[in-house]
Amino acid sequence: MPYGCQRVHVRLAVVAELQDIRDFLRGQPLFSVLPEAALDLLTRRIVIRYLRRGASFPPDDVEASSFYVLRKGAVELRDAGGALREKLAEGDSLDGAGLADTEGRSLAGVAVEDTLFYVLGAADLEAARRECPEFDAGFEQSVAERLRRAREAAPDVSRAGGNLLRLQVSDLVTRPPVCGPPEMTVREAAALMTRERVSSLLVVSDGGLQGVVTDRDLRSRCVAAGLDGAAPLREVMTPRPHTVGPAASAFEALLTMSRLRIHHLPVVEGERVRGMISTHDLLRAQSSNPLYLADLVGRCATVEDLRETVRGSRELHVQLVAANASARQLGQATTLVCDAVTRRLIEFALARLGAPPVPFAWVATGSQGRGELTLHSDQDNALLLDDSFDPAGHGEYFAALASDVNQGLDACGYVRCPGDVMASNPRWRQPVAEWRRYFLDWITHTDHKSATLAANFLDMRTVWGSDGPRQQLMSDVRRRAAGEGIFIAYLAGHALGNQPPIGFFRNFVLVRSGDHEGKLNLKTHGLLPIVDLARVYAVAAGAESVATLARLQEAAGRGRLTEEGSDNLQAAFEFIWMLRARHQADQLRRNLEADNFVAPDELNSLERKHLKDAFAAIATMQRALSTAHGDRLPA
User: Fold this and answer.
1) Which domains can be identified in the chain, with CATH numbers?
2) Which of 157, 168, 417, 591 fits a disulfide with 324 by CB distance 3.0 to 4.6 angstroms?
3) pLDDT, tens digit, for every residue of 375-411?
4) CA 474 to CA 312: how far, in whole Å?
């Protein structure tokens, strides 16, 4: 090849490589805000480096204060004691000027895979930060600020739940379409509609919509017309029905149904049938709020009625997620409905059993007690009985009441506690004096089991009955627990039981087998550690709050937790809850059961980065707690 052609090929290769680097940086959240000219300049200043597995990171021949961006491979950062502090993978960046963990300890890195990374000099980085304030802000924002901005930047924020002008038709399609072919008989269609609990059926052939059959059609065009149940649907359906697209506003759909005087509207996207919406769906969207559902619960006459009403909480969740509701709002909304169901079931039990022989209070513990119930939470409850309770004379009554309520809650979708922490368990159906003895024993004769039990019942909240007995009980417990260092150390040990996945990168996940293999449990390894940390700090501070966010705020206000630590944990809690809530809303839209397991490919690169921030904030506070109680932590 002539020398001139070789030079052309070299230049083209360099240009192509620079364009590849530029495209990669543009796809990273930190660099995506840079103006084109600034990004071009930075790309030309990049130095490409390669490390073999086992090599030190950063290399000794690179200026220590440089900025690093990993393109391929993986790097582990460890402190002087050898403890893993962070894992870096593709897209992760590191400012060498502050190569330390959040406690200020120096970190040393090692490539755990063959690793390709980009090096940017400190002077070039500083110049870009001066030129672009938005780029600079990415370095200056605290963990809490980054996580709050990420949560507030929810893609569905403009479509507030319950507002038909903002809701899209797709938000109302919460189940797959119920369809039948034109040759299906009327009898078969009626059976299918009854089984699926729908009032209309889409008639589909070869994937295309042919017509619609409603309950009214079956009455007026079949029964009233004297047709036999063997008649095919094509004889009673409404052919070529009006349709609406999934992106249309719910208000537009309502106007269409009003203008045409129809109550059902098929949702079609291109040739694909997506589902059906009805005037009932639109009216329910207007009224799908927790107060409406709670009021509806109060008018239910049977457990079956309650079960059907509770199904509305699934739609409520979808609507609130679309409105970008906060973790506190989502938890309170779901809890409010469960509280109402619990009270109604108690009323059913009292109507059957008669007046209680002694006063009592039904209390919720766990997530319901904290007001943080989700669609995937199980029951946690107990009974506080008046001290005049006589087991021989009154025990049978309260056993029957507890059984009725726990069974009713289970029938309504609030599954039984796998640890049997329910009022139907006689151990958790006791007079107030016995509860006081329980707590005294847990606090003064602490072990792992008693610390776990105390952690659950410290979240106690009254759902039915007078709240006075619980208030007095917990006031006594708070005063005693705040001064018991060993008890708090055991609570701290309990709070360190669920570690966040600091090494979460690429497809690194927690679940290794079973139905959720290859997924990340956002509850166990994200939310529960924050719940447990908040409880420890609240108990040490003698705080009255039960809800996690309120506990963090009160602990900081009483000096038991730094403002920065409190802010970071609150922001991490909100962000992880948001990820889980969106995941569950998507499952509900696809008519699946909601769970806490998120697959890595559900998260985009920005969500992964923010999730690492949240996990790092949790790990930082767990290390601080471990240090504070290190000499007393149980083995």
Assistant:
1) 3-140 (2.60.120.10), 169-283 (3.10.580.10), 292-628 (no CATH)
2) 157
3) 878 999 999 999 999 999 999 999 999 999 999 999 9
4) 34
